[in-house]
Amino acid sequence: MRLGFLFGFVIVMWALIIFGGYILIKVVAPIQLESGDIASSVLKAVIAISMVIIWIWILVTLKNTYTKRRLTKTS
Amino acid sequence: MSFVPAITVSAIAFVVTYFLTPVLIKYLNQRGMVVKDYHKPNNQQVPRPGGLSIIAGIVAAEVALFAFTMSSGVLAILLCTVIAFFVGYVDDKKTMGGYFKPVALVGAAIPIILLNAYDFHLDFPFFGSAKIPILYIALILVAIPIMGNTINSIDVLNGIVSGFIAIASVPLIITLFLQNKVDIAIAALPLLLSAIAFYKYHKYPSRIFPGDSGTLAWGAMYGAIAIVGGVEVVATIALLPAVINSFLFLASVKKIVEHRAIKERPTVLLDDYRLKASTESSAPVTLLRLVLANGPMREDEIARSIFKLGVFSAGMAILTAVLIGVSI
Fold first, then answer.
1. Which of B45, B50, B301, B317 can pair with B171 through a Cys bridge, CB separation 3.0 to 4.6 Å?
2. What are B295-300's contacts with CB under 8 Å, separation 24+?
3. Strand pairing of B34-36 and B45-47?
4. 3-state SS assignment for residue B105
């Protein structure tokens, strides 16, 4: 299938958006540390940034694997 | 009750863009405002920018809708689109640096904030919504430049951006109507209708290019509708092929830079004017290059492939809207 990889890429991104929503609403939002609001906000921001980094890492790995296999000179 | 404004607004956007574009083609040709179409034989020149007929259709329709509704949401969408058009027009007239468009487009987001035309809840399927009052304002300022540049970056071959924006706007309009956000749904119709009208002249072989003024206006309008209508997640999913294109490009070159500034091209033009993917490891990875991974294609075949991806993403977006709680 000519566009198979790109359809797969769309599905992976969709799944990451849905899963990100779950983490954001069910895990990150309820966090409330005893040490106060600022500490809670910092922790939430760190988790959110970490999620974005993992998200980008997954997509870059996917892209690099496919690109090396299909688009780069083998000679 | 919303039938009359919806038909009126749609007709205005379509008719103005459809009939103004040939006049603009003639005018731009007479003034020598043309650019080379690199994928055609005989040094073919194409008039640009077509953004003028696109914005005329959108403004005429949105002003009429604002007169019907006096909605601050409609006004915010209109102002955001017009500012983005002018940012693009500056870039059409005088080629600016890579950072100009993202930075200048922040200004297009300001009317949405000043008119308080947003809701700071992000709705996700299955799990409800996230309330992010302060962060949401920052997201608005980032989202409009991203949407504008994302649509701008998919303007790579004849007819792609106009066809793609028409496809991507459909799930947005359906979701807004189903969520009973009628004013904003009607405000989104000029996006679809101006794109369809312009596609007639932009499809392969192009008789006019939209230019940055056209693509940034469409992109910013799309982002403004998503924010004002509160359908950000659905809008993002419908736009995924364009998001993938921007992501792949940025992940390859690792900086914000204009496509024209890249030395190694992602595709190679063959003698028969088909395109094939570059095999150079230093060439940026783009959606176009991945579409061509299985062999050379004609320009119109590539456009059809990208439209298939657009239709697939639009389907995923409608599915997401259903999962959020909308019933079809």
1. B317
2. B296/B270, B298/B273, B298/B274, B299/B39, B299/B157, B299/B158, B299/B204, B299/B273, B299/B275, B300/B158, B300/B159, B300/B204
3. antiparallel
4. coil
Tell me the C-alpha distance between A22 and B127, whole Å.
6
The DSSP secondary structure of B235-254, one letter per residue, reads HHHHTHHHHHHHHHHHHHH-
Nearest-5° angle of CA B270, CA B272, CA B274? 60
Considering only residues 27 to 46 of chain A, which have any Cβ-Cβ distance to chain B shorter than 8 Å? 29
The residue in chain A having the minimum alpha-carbon distance to the alpha carbon of residue B122 is A21
Question: What residues in A contact B126, CB-CB < 8 Å?
Answer: 18, 21-22
Burial class (CB in 10 A: 0-12, 13-18, 19+), A75: exposed
pTM assigned to the model: 0.92
Do residue A13 and residue B244 have CB atoms under 8 angstroms apart? yes
- What ipTM does the predicted assembly reach? 0.86
* Contact call for A25 and B248, based on CB within 8 A: no
Give the residue among B326, B316, B324 at the shortest CA–CA distance from B129. Answer: B324
CB contact under 8 A, B240 and A13: yes
Cα separation, B164 vs B304, in Å, equals: 10
Across the interface, do B285 and A63 touch by the CB < 8 Å criterion?
A: yes
Residue spans of the domains in chain B: they are 3-238
Token pair for residue B252? Answer: 């390859």
> Is the CB of residue B285 less than 8 Å away from at least one CB of chain A?
yes
Sign, Cα dihedral of B208, B209, B212, B218: positive
User: Hey, how many other C-beta atoms are within 10 angstroms of the C-beta on A48?
Assistant: 16
SS3 content of chain A, % helix, strand, coil (to 5): 80, 0, 20
pLDDT in tens, A28-75: 888 888 888 788 888 888 888 899 899 989 988 988 888 888 776 554
End-to-end CA distance of chain A: 26
Other CB atoms within a 10 A radius of the CB of residue A24 amount to: 20
Q: Report the SS3 class of residue B92.
A: helix
Enumerate the residues of chain B whose CB falls inside 8 A of the CB of residue A29.
130-131
Which chain B positions have a beta carbon within 8 Å of A26's beta carbon?
Answer: 127
Q: Are A5 and A69 in contact (CB under 8 A)?
A: no
Give the span between the Cα atoms of B273 and B271, in whole angstroms: 5
